[in-house]
Amino acid sequence: MEDAKDPTERFADRVRDYVKYRPAYPKALLPLLRDQLGLHPGAVVADVGSGTGILSTLFVDFGNVVYGVEPNDAMRRAAEVLLAGRRFRSVAARAEATTLAPRSVDGIVVGQAFHWFDAGAARLEFLRILKPGGWVALIWNSRRTAGTPFLVAYEQFLGRWCAEYPDIRTQYANTESLETLFGQVGYRQDSLANQQVFDYEGLKGRLLSSSYAPGTDDPQQPAMLRDLRRLFEEYSEEESVRFEYDTEVYYGRLSSIPVP
């Protein structure tokens, strides 16, 4: 049973599905950060809230040394297996106390995790570990909730079965938290297109990878999965459905002057 009071444990029983069915991040993220923030292959990057290593992989492939900071044991072990023998350093720690050395990283990336952080405490920690002129990029794969009949129907499905979903979704890219993190200098925003195509097993795994979906110990799960099967059969084309995402990127350099 996941601990609702401790966000670092929310995905402990969902790691297998998370590894297999969560979306990767678009490769267009790399030239965006190169052009706007000076990312280069020799940079040292901290991936804070690194989970199973999905985002870390993008930067390791680019040539970066990546410190994956992740407090959840099961997710961290999955990243260690995925990136074993490569330029990946696994760190068992939280965003608010990374244990990294002062002024040790050129940039910080956060994929699909900043909404779980204490923004004020994370800001102080990020300022401590960043080199002078260091940068931060917060990234979310934000699933589109309209645009196709399936996307609309899936959003309605989540409303029926996932009581926590509305509250969690509204936490993404919360303006107050972003301003707390970046300070008076502020931040910029860009959006990149992304997608996944699923058969039924993929759709099921993608749903069950979400922290707000009823787990195996929830008596509602069997009925939810029957409804998911019905939805798939109604909206699939050639035995597949498509998730479309806007990969939202909020980035900038941290001001040492706090928000008043």
Layout of secondary structure:
Elements: H1 15-21, H2 29-37, E1 44-48, H3 54-62, E2 65-69, H4 73-82, E3 88-91, E4 105-111, H5 119-129, E5 130-143, H6 149-161, H7 165-171, H8 175-182, E6 188-198, H9 200-208, H10 221-235, E7 241-253
Parallel strand pairs: 1-2, 1-4, 2-3, 4-5
Antiparallel strand pairs: 5-7, 6-7
Short description:
This protein is an alpha/beta fold and 260 residues long. It contains ten helices and seven strands.
Descriptive terms for the model:
260 residues, alpha/beta, Rossmann fold, globular, disordered N terminus
Describe the structure.
There is one protein chain. Helix 5 (119-129) links the parallel strand 4 and strand 5. This protein has a domain at 7-144 and 173-198 and 245-253: Rossmann fold. The chain has helices at 15-21, 29-37, 54-62, 73-82, 119-129, 149-161, 165-171, 175-182, 200-208, 221-235; strands at residues 44-48, 65-69, 88-91, 105-111, 130-143, 188-198, 241-253. A seven-stranded mixed beta sheet has the order 3-2-1-4-5-7-6. Helix 1 crosses helix 9 and helix 5 (119-129) runs parallel beside helix 8. The chain is an alpha/beta fold.
